[in-house]
Amino acid sequence: MNPLFPSFQWDSVVIQPWTSGFSITLWVVVMGFLSGAACALVGNYLLLRRMALLGDAISHSVLPGLVVAFFLFQTTGTIAAFSGALVAAVLTVLLIDGIHRYSKIKVDAAICIVFTTLFALGVVGMSFLERSGNVHLDAECILYGEILMVALEPPVVVGGISLGPPQVLRIGLVLVGVILAIAVFYKELLITSFDPALARSLGFSVRAWHFATMSVLALVIVSVFEAAGVILPVAMLIVPGMFASQISCRMVPRMAWSVLHAMLSAVLGYHLSVWLDCSPAGAMVVVGALLFLAVWLPAMIRSAWMRAG
Amino acid sequence: MSGSGCRVSLPVWCGVFAFLFLLTLVPAEAARIGELTDVSFLDRSKRFFTFQDPSLRYALAGSMLLGICCGLMGCFLVMRRLSLMGDAISHAVLPGIVLGFLWSMSKNPLAIFVGATLAGLLGAAVVQWIQNTTRQKEDAALGFVLASFFGLGICLLTMLQGRPGGNQSGLSSFLFGQAAAMGRGDVILLAVVTLLVLVILGFFFKEFVLTSFDAGFARSLGWPVAFFHYTLMLLLAFAIVSSLQAVGVVLVSAMLVIPASAAFLLTRRMNTMVVLAALFGLFAGVCGTFFSFTGKNLPTGPLMVLAAAVVFAGAFLFAPRHGVLSRWWIVRERRKRIGRENSLKALYRILEDDAFRPGPVALADYADRTKETLENAGQHLRTAARHGLLTWNQEGESVSFTPKGWQRAAEIVRNHRLWELYLANAASIQPDHVHEDAEQIEHILGDATVRALEKRLGHAVLDPHGKPIPQWSEIHQKTGPDSSPAGPARK
Q1: Residues 16 to 75 of A: which have CB under 8 A from any B CB?
Q2: With 0-12 CB in 10 A as exposed, 13-18 as middle and 19+ as buried, what is B203?
Q3: What is the pairing mode between strands A156-158 and A161-164?
Q4: Does B322 contact chain A (CB < 8 Å)?
Q5: How many other β-carbons are positioned within 10 Å of the β-carbon of residue B234?
Q6: Which among A257, B285, B291, B394 would be 20 to 30 A from B410, CA to CA?
Q7: How many CB pairs under 8 A join A and B?
Q8: What are phi and psi of B484, to 5 degrees?
Q9: What is the ipTM of this complex?
């Protein structure tokens, strides 16, 4: 039987992916990076708003959206799935807000209630679909994501030039949109995230900005989710932002650091997955967590030192 | 707050428990759940309630135990605002499950239990470390543990699946859970964990409640707050790990949080909340198993969660004090009552201005006083008449108080003027500023408050504007001054 950890060979792990399987490596890494970067940028604001786990909630609750979209349109086509997921994501945000506003339930409990209920609806709907026998939506595949499939999609060709797989293009467009939105509304986002009370006193509609941010979050998660599963957006919304906030207190450097973190996670994670023969999305998350560990350790040692001395 | 409620109910729970345990021991031979696909819903319901299938008995007992156990634990999570801790730990156990599997190279429940519990506790500890040593907030720490541990678990799981024999491990059933696949070992494990949770929570109820509600106060009393926190986390990890087989990683947190939240909406006392949450969990467990069985092998875990969600939705909408619909109804009724009372007050003042000369009040006078159209005024008076406060004369042009209506009208005017006098005397507010406030409170003042006000103001007879305050004898005279509806309408 093979050992669980294969021996590390520089050539097969680091060199060969770029020489023999170039297009697969390139597109998986690019997909991982673009997804990670889009999530990281939005994630910085999520962390400021202390809503880090909303990413987890939304990425689970898109499931019933996918199922309903299939019921309605009888196709697993991208547009139908995308719009169904987006509707479910927005519904999640509204339900959480509604439960929190109209009862004494705290936000964290509201998040948990809404996303688990929607996810349960999705799983039940899926088993109905499977029973009727006309589709097999693989729940495990949804959870782990099959980022490798990205490279196998036929590329989009415009004017004779191959631009890359459609998912990569879509997440690229979303990333550009996120960057533009942050650049244009930098001031508004900053003040409504950092100090909602001040923002309200200055006449900003904090609620409107909250929902705007949430819609962008939903868009990002849905576009990442389709190619990379649940775990990548959940992790990349949180970990890069934490990594960056260990390093810098200022917003712009934070964003730069979090994008760098996303890039390192994507590249190193892919190589880790080649080495260990495991899920690339999972490996990217593990590398991202290790990177945070690297900046956290000094703080941990310092605090232990201070407590001892 | 005492733990008596919980301790009293302990024997009851033990009874439920013993019943469930016996259920698993009755021997019988029958098919797995869902093997009989050609029988009708009614037949399957009958099979369900006669407990013919042993695998159904295991699934049912397991689900019920799970509901009780998670419902109890969930109360403390919800109270501590740690709802998402359940989510984080249930994801964090995944690498532990895989490592437990690797250690024994089989689906040995004990190895998996140990591995998963250790991973869950490590996750809870990492959350605490991150918060203690960095400026990261709790949600970020929870999210970090959830994502990184789950990512690691997925890596390990996919590495395992690439190996010969790894694919058949059935480990992925831990992701979504399958109550029908629960064996006797799983149910006994759940029973032991539930008993442990009941006993520990029962004996240290007061301590857990205090450290949950006010950790700072508990620390100042010299209690080991961290010890209770980690005991709770240990119990939580036990509860989660033993429930995984039935509901899966993603939905365990639902069984923790949803029944407890529903109970939280229905009561303000922790003892009641604990009992209610356990009952809701139990109900969800039974419903989930029932619909899973009668619905021909639909997944049990999600159905349990949906049943719990229905309970929560009911509490959210109809809870007596906090429900959205009940609150809407209460507000609506109060608004209508205030509208009626304002009509009565206007009529009283018309009579007062006319020195309480006997005779009914004309609709036109009333409309003039309240500055409404005749149509609106008529509508308001008809509403009051429907409640037995007024009677119309035969022509339908004027109204008179009934005894009940007169009493209420005089009471409202008395409340109004008493409050004005109180504000002017006791709070030294200018007499021309007291009207608005009195206009609000006149509808709310209860009898006891009115007695106290009267006493405090020395049973005064005039309000700050010089108007007489209706006295007890006037209010309770059998009839008002206009008791003869046949009399001529005043001008």
Answers
A1: 47, 50-53, 55-56, 60
A2: middle
A3: antiparallel
A4: yes
A5: 16
A6: B394
A7: 209
A8: -100, 100
A9: 0.90
